[in-house]
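Late entry, written up from scratch paper. The run itself happened at the end of the previous shift, but nothing got recorded in the book at the time, so transcribing now.
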Amino acid sequence: MDKLWAPWRSKYITKVGSIKGCIFCSKPKSKKDRTNYIVHRSRHSFSILNIYPYNNGHMMIVPYRHVNDIAKLNDEETLDLMRLLKGSQELLSKTMHPEGYNIGINIGRAAGAGLKDHVHIHLVPRWAGDSNFMPVFTSTKVISESLDALYDRLKKCSRAGK
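Output as recorded:
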């Protein structure tokens, strides 16, 4: 197969060159959490679903303050970020039951940072066998659940846990 039909990607392709400013600064300011897939807000950081995920449930944990390196966060911001990472992992575990996680921070372009100016932590749920033939043969990843459906499940599970 040479083509995978994914019409929802056209929105990203046509928009990517026109994005101005920092999405990690603008999205939480808009107060449209469902539209922006902001799952949780804490005092110094927020968790947000990655709209171009490596795997279903891929979330990012982001400080509100615009800094390009975790070393530039103060102790209170760092503790808040780690607590939100822990809480987000617990929420994904209750909601999706993954068998493992990849957790990472890419600092700088050389390290693979796509958004190099605002540090963030990637939290990616994993399951045994979650890679299939698609990435091997076509460099394509199949995501099995829509972001809207996943967001609703996470929020429902989050409310139930309180």
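Helices lie at 9-15, 23-29, 33-36, 75-96, 133-138, 147-160.
(Scratch paper discarded after transcription.)
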